[in-house]
Amino acid sequence: MNIAVIGTGYVGLVTGACFSEFGVQVTCVDKLPEKIDALRRGEIPIYEPGLEDIVERNTRSGRLSFTLDLADAVSRALVVFVAVGTPAAPDGSTDLAFVESVAREIGRCLDGYRVIVTKSTVPVGTSDHVRAWIQEELDLRGSKLRFSVASNPEFLREGAAIGDFMRPDRVVIGTDPGDDQALAILKDLYRPLYLNETPFVETNIHTAEFAKYAANAFLATKISFVNELSVLCEEIGGDVQAIARVMGLDNRIGKKFLHAGPGYGGSCFPKDTTSAAHFARALGHELSIVEATIRVNERQRLRMVDKIVAALEGDVVGRTVGVLGLSFKPETDDLREAPAIDIVRELLRRGAKIRAYDPAALAQAGRLVPEMTLCKDAYEALEGADAMVVVTEWNEFRLLDLPRARELMAEPRMLDLRNVYKRDPVVAAGFQYWGVGR
Ligand SMILES: NC(=O)c1ccc[n+]([C@@H]2O[C@H](COP(=O)([O-])OP(=O)(O)OC[C@H]3O[C@@H](n4cnc5c(N)ncnc54)[C@H](O)[C@@H]3O)[C@@H](O)[C@H]2O)c1
Asked: pTM of the entire structure?
């Protein structure tokens, strides 16, 4: 089968590369010439473990190619995935400009039956708009061509995207009731996963669109829930990690996403929770739990700043903070809504100096926050620092050489915003230690 994937970012590139690995003929389209040029040279524009090998192998075998020419890609495809960004608009709604532009372009070039699949995370009802935008363009051409729309939300996690795509917990396919052709085509495309016994949920389009928000909002809620508990734990001398363990060992609750920290970030949870709350309100409903989740998350970032300021006896003016980890989570270079960026900006605003290191996101972070000093490793970031702040739990920060760190720092303080250290050994190494919720 031939497919086209429009938008070659974290989702589109992984989707295209993984389908080509399954033997599908894939054309990935983007509108950025520098991205397409880089990919054609074999350079991967994002940090995603394992992706480079798959792209290289399948490009070489001729199953995966990259182009700026959407019309050409669509003309050769039976299925067209739309995987462009759907950022938050300032009012919390979702900016669908990229989706609309792609849908209209598809409408202008369609030359036969295609299944147009929304893979981007989009508010409920967007696929109806996609259909209307394509139809409007066809009407302008006086064309009577038939096409299907479908929803196939993506659940992959950055940093583990290849495994998540190849061995997903589930695949959701939303089609119009009675559109057996589109459903059969998509099931055929996903056949390698059927053979793996991946659970498939076949449903209508609105349900598929909503399911993605439901899943992300629930995961975000778990994080905010435990973060709210962490505040109380600090008051009562409790240990939020022990509480999370007690909760997580209950199979009905599950262990994952119960880690107290600086709050969720990234390209999905913040905008997806806000978008869900927004489209619910537009329908006259309040998703009150989701709205509370958002408020708790915003507060949590500020609490982290307060924690750092308090550790520095209330005054950060002229003090140096060594920040370890900037990306929103380990194993990605994605800085969208990264807690570290908000924390660093607020500390700078209050007069602190920042020395920072991240294994993958350093250069990009330097462009976002030019006032901070970028360092080549964790130890350089700690030179002369009055406090070390572990914001993102990259593996290389889990076993720091504490005597060496102490030697380099002006004052041995550790703020472990991910609870990756146990207090006693850090204190034994001569540090003052602060975790989150314990
Ligand atoms: N990043 C994730 O972990 C993740 C996970 C699941 C779902 N999603 C969803 O998937 C969608 C894409 O996210 P992403 O992180 O891959 O975004 P991204 O910003 O990394 O990539 C989007 C790409 O689309 C391209 N693009 C925009 N307009 C275009 C056009 N008219 N023609 C061709 N290309 C165009 C951009 O240049 C960019 O390369 C979003 O809706 C997001 O919510 C993301």
From this structure: 0.94
